[in-house]
Inverse folding.
């Protein structure tokens, strides 16, 4: 039986559901076109949510009925706070295009709030059904957000593609879950973990795990389930792309890590070669395909495929170091990536401008600080010290080496050298093409985001100790369970 | 003076930030003045190292130690310290950076603020590389330094600057990420091991301490040593550059602005050879002395010497000629190093300094004439000794220094290397000697074509001789050339202990076999004596 006290654990999710509905209904009270009011309502909602996360983390242990579905451990809290930060940044990024009045800000923010609510469930879910429900809530919101430029063909086309492919992948995921249920007799991760311990080599189980893995790979955009990524990332409004490439991916990795570390770790011999192949392919295909892109959004889309491959190294390693690596990588990747998207926003003149590499030409002349910030973000994505990206890559490489996958480590480092080549095409455009000086759209919110991401990327790179300790604390509940 | 190394390392960065935030980009005079001040004071500070370095017998190998925890959860320390080799390289770095700054005053007209900021940042990176005794810290500096150099080539370079800059960056990066894997493997070997690869760890506290790695080097199993050496080798060989990893070098040198070429040749290439001396040799002694490593390295060095010289000979472009001569000279340095005896190593280290001075000087000289004529084609010149006698004088001394004329620095280095190499194999030594002959041939031929003969190109008849500022960029180098050439003892004194330390690490029985009395000095102040050979044998036996 769930008790009233249990509701305390669901605080953030309750706040977000109510808040999301409020944002949807608020325009009825008037101010339909008041984007500023919508933005502030959203930010207040996010602040309350963050507070609620802390409340939930501090509360007493929940009843057994709830804890079978849902936990608020330090792992969940880490991701929940990261989600709130990401959504807050996306909110600010989106505010500018929403406030020019053509698109309703209230609906946009309410969809973001619902997506966040789904992500919160994903971070906390310890039961495949609660994880699935959270995932679907997030996915459905992001399908709509992708098509938010409803008068633009590319945006609607992207939304349609994303919706169709996403639904199929959800179906595959669900089918995998049902197979696992069929074999293990439970959807609860802890029970699955004990059930599968003696079932290595069970055919039905392996097929179930593979289908589950395929669904997750779609959500994190790993090869060979990546084909939707470039089109969707390019077609979606840039703030939504920022959300898809950080929020949605980070959430998918949260469940990826939890399911594999908590539920399926003893099946490792059955799935490690598949995950290793997927990771290697993602890094290779993502980085090589990005080399030839002239469109920055497409380039970053391919690079985000490669980043999914890197993060999967941490899942593959199945060690404390690996899980820590996933958390750190998600954190540093989120800041560098949102920063990059913010820069793309700054160059926006029409809906889709600021997308070509050429649009960055001569940026150092018109906006030296922005150009510098962009260099830092790109160095971080490329994993070059002293930026935070290096620390993230360091942990993943260390994890994959200590797990004995030397060949994969070699592919990973060589591909990160390749990635620098295309990241530096943007640097080259900014500093070494003198033909023109790129114009920048001044926007207070976006400038703020760039500053935050810049400081975070440098600070976490130069003084990473606190982040590493935090990640070590956050993985404790998962690792303890896995070693049991 | 507790933190002298940190002060020297970050002092240029302070200057860079000062210019970045407080100086208007139009006020060219202020920018130049501040940069000169910071580069100059950094040089003066580095002289403190020269005078304070304890050369006495029994002095610790590593001095000026600074150590504190940086990322304790993975065992990374902020650990600075230098031996004589690093000290010489640091002094050379600060001197040449100062000269490079001073030489850029008229050469760089566009985007001066960024240029000088980047030069100063580069200096911080370079000094940090030589100071770091923690592998993680070393790696950070090693990569950090790439970025300013990339910009220096890519923004202020010649017509193919974009290509040259990215090629430089990617080559070095590709090598260094492999090195990162090597570092990680060492790290795990020292601590928990890599059970999945059948590598048992030593169970020490996780650490990236290079001196710790020096200590445990002997215990690493041969197979692992081989792969680790390969990882380090690729990183360092690209940087040196050794044949066949040298193809980035001519592009980068030719396209870089003069100051960039000077720093590239004088300092960045030395990082490769320094990497071998500091890491590959003492950490992986088994691999270093095994024939499947030693022979290929020596063969590649010899190919580098001869091939570099032959290619240099046919270059129509002066800068490219000097660039290829670097390949040849660095082949020498590698050959001397892999003689693996004190004489060869001392010659090798001295030759690193010599190459920095001579080739740095040659790039400056080529830059001077390029600034006047905007061409570096040898065929465009001829007989310019008549119009630029002072220039011809400086060029002659530098040329002679580069080809190793006695009383100049090159001779001492080459002689020591030949002596060391001849001790090991006369065949190697004869190839090295061939390199010297070829070196004399292409340099003297270059000199002859540019400075002598009739002054038949009318564009050259109006060339102005060196200004006072230009002379002053060269005079310190010329002084060094004569100093090392006539009285190299101070340099050998400084190098002796560190070189013996490395030789002892590579071959613990070397001194016994050679019948030389050798007392191992303490590793650093307050450090207990390192484990002797017998103890290491015991560890090996126990495994």
């Amino acid at each position: 039986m769930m008790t009233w006290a249990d509701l305390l654990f669901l605080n953030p999710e309750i706040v977000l559901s109510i808040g999301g509905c409020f944002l949807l209904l608020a325009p009825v009270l008037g101010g339909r076109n008041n984007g500023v009011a919508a933005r502030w309502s959203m930010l207040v909602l996010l602040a309350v949510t963050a507070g609620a996360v802390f409340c939930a983390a501090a509360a007493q242990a929940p009843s057994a009925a709830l804890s079978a579905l849902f936990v608020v451990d330090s792992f969940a809290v880490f991701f929940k706070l990261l989600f709130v930060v990401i959504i807050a940044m996306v909110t600010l990024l989106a505010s500018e295009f929403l406030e020019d009045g053509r698109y309703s800000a209230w609906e946009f923010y309410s969809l973001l709030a619902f997506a966040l609510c789904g992500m919160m469930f994903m971070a906390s879910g310890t039961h495949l059904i609660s994880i699935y429900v959270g995932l679907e809530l997030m996915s459905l919101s992001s399908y709509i957000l992708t098509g938010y430029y409803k008068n633009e063909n590319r945006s609607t086309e992207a939304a349609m593609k994303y919706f169709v492919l996403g639904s199929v992948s959800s179906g595959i995921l669900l089918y995998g879950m049902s197979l696992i249920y069929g074999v293990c007799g439970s959807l609860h991760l802890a029970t699955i973990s004990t059930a599968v311990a003696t079932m290595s080599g069970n055919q039905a189980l392996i097929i179930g795990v593979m289908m589950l893995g395929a669904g997750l790979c779609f959500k994190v955009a790993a090869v060979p389930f990546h084909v939707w990524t470039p089109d969707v990332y390019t077609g979606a409004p840039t703030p939504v792309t920022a959300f898809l490439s950080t929020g949605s991916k980070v959430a998918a990795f949260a469940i990826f890590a939890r399911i594999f570390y908590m539920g399926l770790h003893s099946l490792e011999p059955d799935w490690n070669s598949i995950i290793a192949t997927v990771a290697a392919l993602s890094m290779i295909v993502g980085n090589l395909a990005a080399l030839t892109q002239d469109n920055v959004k497409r380039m970053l889309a391919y690079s985000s495929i490669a980043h999914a491959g890197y993060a999967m190294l941490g899942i593959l390693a199945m060690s404390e170091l690996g899980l820590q690596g996933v958390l750190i990588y998600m954190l540093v990747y989120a800041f560098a990536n949102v920063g990059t998207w913010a820069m793309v926003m700054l160059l926006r003149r029409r809906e889709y401008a600021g997308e070509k590499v050429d649009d960055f030409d001569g940026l150092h002349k018109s906006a030296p600080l922005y150009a510098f910030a962009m260099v830092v973000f790109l160095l971080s994505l490329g994993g070059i010290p002293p930026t935070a990206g290096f620390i993230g890559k360091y942990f993943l490489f260390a994890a994959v080496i200590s797990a004995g996958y030397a060949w994969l480590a070699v592919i990973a480092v060589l591909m990160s050298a390749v990635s620098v080549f295309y990241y530096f095409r943007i640097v080259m455009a900014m500093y070494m093409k003198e033909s023109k000086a790129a114009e920048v759209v001044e926007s207070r919110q976006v400038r703020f985001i760039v500053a935050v991401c810049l400081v975070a990327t440098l600070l976490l790179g130069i003084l990473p100790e606190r982040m590493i300790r935090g990640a070590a604390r956050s993985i404790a509940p998962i690792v303890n369970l896995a070693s049991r | 003076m507790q933190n002298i190394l940190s002060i020297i390392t970050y002092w240029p960065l302070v200057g860079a930030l000062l210019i970045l935030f407080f100086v208007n980009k139009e006020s060219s005079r202020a920018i130049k003045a501040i940069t000169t001040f910071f580069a100059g004071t950094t040089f003066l500070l580095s002289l403190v190292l020269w005078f304070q370095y304890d050369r006495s017998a029994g002095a610790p190998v590593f001095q000026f130690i600074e150590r504190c925890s940086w990322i304790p959860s993975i065992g990374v320390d902020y650990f600075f310290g230098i031996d004589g080799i690093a000290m010489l390289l640091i002094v050379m770095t600060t001197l040449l950076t100062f000269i490079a700054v001073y030489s850029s005053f008229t050469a760089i007209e566009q985007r001066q603020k960024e240029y000088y900021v980047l030069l100063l940042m580069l200096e911080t990176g370079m000094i940090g590389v030589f100071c770091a005794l923690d592998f993680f810290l070393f790696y950070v500096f090693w990569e950090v330094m790439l970025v300013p150099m990339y910009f220096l080539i890519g923004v202020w370079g010649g017509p193919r600057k974009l290509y040259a800059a990215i090629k430089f960056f990617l080559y070095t990066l590709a090598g260094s990420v492999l090195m990162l894997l090597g570092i990680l493997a060492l790290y795990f070997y020292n601590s928990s091991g890599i059970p999945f690869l059948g590598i048992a760890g030593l169970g020490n506290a996780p650490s990236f301490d290079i001196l710790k790695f020096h200590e445990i080097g002997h215990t690493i199993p041969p197979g692992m040593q081989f792969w680790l050496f390969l990882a380090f080798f690729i990183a360092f060989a690209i940087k040196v550059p050794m044949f066949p990893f040298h193809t980035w070098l001519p592009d980068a040198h030719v396209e870089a602005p003069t100051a960039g070429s000077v720093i590239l040749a004088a300092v960045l290439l030395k990082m490769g050879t320094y990497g071998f001396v500091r890491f590959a040799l003492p950490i992986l002694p088994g691999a270093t002395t095994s024939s499947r490593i030693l022979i290929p390295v020596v063969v590649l060095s010899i190919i580098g010497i001869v091939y570099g010289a032959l290619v240099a000979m046919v270059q129509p472009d002066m800068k490219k000629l000097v660039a290829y001569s670097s390949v040849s000279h660095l082949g020498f340095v590698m050959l001397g190093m892999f003689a693996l005896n004190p004489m060869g190593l001392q010659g090798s280290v001295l030759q690193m300094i010599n190459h920095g001075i001579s080739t740095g000087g040659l790039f400056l000289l080529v830059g001077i004439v390029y600034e006047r004529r905007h061409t570096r084609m040898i065929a465009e010149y001829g007989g310019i000794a008549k119009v630029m006698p002072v220039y011809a004088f400086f060029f002659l001394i530098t040329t002679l220094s580069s080809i190793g004329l006695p009383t100049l620095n090159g001779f001492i280095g080459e002689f020591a290397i030949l002596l060391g190499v001849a001790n090991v194999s006369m065949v190697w030594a004869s190839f090295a000697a061939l390199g010297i002959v070829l070196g004399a041939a292409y340099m003297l031929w270059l000199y002859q074509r540019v400075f002598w003969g009739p002054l038949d190109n009318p564009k050259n008849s109006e060339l102005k001789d060196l200004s006072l500022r230009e002379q002053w960029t060269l005079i310190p180098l010329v002084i060094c050339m004569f100093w090392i050439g006539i009285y190299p003892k101070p340099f050998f004194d400084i190098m002796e202990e560190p070189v013996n330390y490395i030789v002892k690490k590579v071959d613990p029985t070397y001194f016994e076999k050679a019948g030389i009395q050798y007392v191992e000095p303490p590793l650093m102040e307050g450090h207990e004596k390192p484990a002797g050979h017998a103890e290491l044998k015991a560890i090996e036996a126990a495994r």
